[in-house]
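Quick start: what a row looks like.
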Amino acid sequence: MAELNEYTNNTTVFGKFLYTNFLIGFKTVMGLDSIPATRFFNLIFSVLTLVVLFFGLKLKFKKELLAYLGTLIFAFSFTFWKQTEIIEVYTFNSFWIALYVYFTIRFLEDRNSRFLFVSSLILGLSLFAHVQNIMLIPGWVILCYISFRNYKVKILPSVFVFFAFAFALYFMAYINGYETSHVFGSGNSDWVTGSFEKGISGFSKDILVAIGYLIYNFWIFVIPAIIVIYKKIKGLRDSQNLFYLVSFIVPFGFATIYNVSDSYVFFLNAYLFFISFIIEGLIDIKISHPKIYKTISFSVFCVPLFYLLSYLIISKTPQGQNFDKEKSQKGGLSYYLFPWMRNNVGVLEFYLDGKKPFDDKDFMNINCHIFLKHRKGKNSLEEIRKM
């Protein structure tokens, strides 16, 4: 869409309404070519996500050092780091969810209905960025309930503004002639129904993969977070515990069973809540074992080494070597174990080399050919390859 320079009125899952229009607006204002524009746009919103996360953690835990530590842990996490370098919607979406989390914390700290309204508005607006954000609705409902029941806060304006945005997705799709059934669904039965037809062994595998992703993203920091989650489950009489747990568990559970090959990106919303559990757990360790706390905290700088060692170990195994060959079109094993993107083949280069796609109707194949068709008028194939 950036190459075509076309704004969109498509509010279905295929339109990426907010992402596409923000990107094209940024490209137009800055006067950039589509390639550097998409790179800078992605990087800017990645940094903004970290900035908002920092202030949210600082507000919640009252310590700047803890906020820096939590932000570093999230920044070094495999999924966020990788998505910072891949031209996708997910770090842009993370910015909106980080904003939602920040204003939710502000409300829980100040009990001011204005902040509940803003957080509800942002969550509603975020649906225009990515439909997966509906998984945060159960947590938001709990937030509204405890606001009304425990804090005696007026919630009707907040409820109204959220549902106004949610309804607007359907309304805009309808008046612009798009399939309204695709507003909150892709129509791809393999993605949706396949998520519930895996059987016990399939679900067991999904859970193990999700745990593997969690460990690979946060390695040793998973331990204090799991302890905190266990304590919160035991202390569900605290309504705030219920809010944080549901806001983490529902999107985490969705990403666990969602039947797509790149499901790892859908965990980002849950990870934004998981960071709070990590910091809370580290605070407990700091109180009881200050030396262990210091060691664990400084270990955050060893995360890149952790990725490197994981690759070196797995690449020596027969399974790792076979996987490297099977995924050569994406850059092999290093693509899946290194968050940084350097000298990877990439989808566009795969097609430039004249290799046959696995599926002629795959959206990546289609988009690559559309991009090449428009780009060939500006650059040679060799210049496109270098870009």
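That is the whole record. The chain is about 70% helix and 0% strand. Residues 10 and 322 are 41 Å apart (CA to CA).
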